Amino acid sequence: MGLANRTGRPGARISALNMRISALRARHAALDARIGELRGQASVNPMRLSNLKSRKSRLRDEIRAWEDMVRVLAGGARPAA
């Protein structure tokens, strides 16, 4: 857990995690836009589209994991297992 070990202050850790989440959300939005562009094309490579959708799904899962970490560090409820 490299991000959490950079500082001993929980607030700083949460801030760093929120920055990471923001960056991941931007990547997720860019993939969503690219998928929309491909769907609008007459000839779409189904493998390319599938690859982008898989990457988008993995990003969504990663975002959720980081959000769960922020909730735990902030003293909120622990995520469901």
UniProtKB/TrEMBL annotation:
Protein name per UniProt: DUF465 domain-containing protein
